Amino acid sequence: MRFTERVAVVVGAGQGGIGAAIVRRFASEGARVLACDKDTLRLEALRSETGEAASTVRFHPMDVGRSEDIRRMVETALGAFGKIDILVNCAGISPKKQFLEYTEADWDAVQNINLKGAFLCARAVAEPMMAEKYGRIVMLSSSSWRNGGVAGGIPYGASKAGIIGLTRSLARALGPHGITVNAIAPGPTLTALTQNWLPDRAKEVVAQVPMGRLGRPEDTAAAAVFLASDDASYITGVCLDVNGGIVMG
Ligand SMILES: NC(=O)c1ccc[n+]([C@@H]2O[C@H](COP(=O)([O-])OP(=O)(O)OC[C@H]3O[C@@H](n4cnc5c(N)ncnc54)[C@H](O)[C@@H]3O)[C@@H](O)[C@H]2O)c1
């Protein structure tokens, strides 16, 4: 129960993937959690699933592409719990196309959610965290930024490399305020985000993974709670690979 004194905001928890696993893990370790997503239907499913922990988990519909929604999310967390100690930003989209098929609108949509959304969320929680002189920000990158990119996901690959630069710069800016900023780069993990390609290529992908299996949302959740914990108080600006060895940095 290492998070009994802590308040976590988890963005992108609605589709039952990595964000939802992080919410479950925080709740099981005593944190008070604001679980956020634009998918309200699946947030409802998470709400009923968290059962006993539900009293410490609140659910908040929002669109990470809208700064007004992010402002309201922070107000909601502060109103419900009085402070924000931890932000984990899992919101992401990954439209798959050939390079020449991507439109400017596709590019903008991906950067808006995956990268600008991460910046806006970090900016919105930084002030209350600075007031407490304590904070943990965890960003979601991807193993694709290490392995040379994603030919079938150009805007996504760019956004996830951007997350690394954002993480490092924020780590420098916020360290003096007692706030750590780290990223996690998961390897291929079966979730709603990957269901349009990973099941068909699972055998081929697993063959490249020294640990011999695909990632599970719980693998990344374990890394996220570690980076959000006091055990990681002297770790900032890193990207933690959670990929079974498919790419080694
Ligand atoms: N699954 C993988 O293989 C994998 C690998 C590397 C990185 N990641 C990253 O992990 C994170 C979580 O992905 P996941 O695999 O759990 O997929 P997921 O689809 O379960 O999670 C992404 C979440 O973001 C939410 N979201 C999308 N647009 C939003 C918006 N505008 N506002 C609010 N929420 C929005 C979705 O509803 C969803 O709940 C993503 O950032 C993804 O890029 C996933």
Question: Can you tell me about this structure?
Answer:
By secondary structure, this protein is an alpha/beta fold. Helix content is 43%, strand content 15%. The protein has helices spanning 18-28, 40-49, 67-81, 104-132, 154-174, 198-206, 217-228, and strands at residues 7-11, 32-37, 57-61, 86-89, 135-140, 179-186, 239-242. The chain has a seven-stranded parallel β-sheet, sandwiched between helices. The chain starts with 6 loop residues before the first strand and ends in a 7-residue tail after the last strand. Nicotinamide-adenine-dinucleotide binds at residues 12, 14-15, 17-19, 37-39, 63-65, 90-93, 113, 140, 142, 186, 188-189, 191-194.
Specify the biggest β-sheet: 7 strands, parallel
Radius of gyration: 17 Å
Mean pLDDT: 94
- Indicate the proportion of strand residues: 15-25%
Physical arrangement of strands within the biggest beta sheet: 3-2-1-4-5-6-7
Offer a few descriptive terms.
alpha/beta; 249 residues
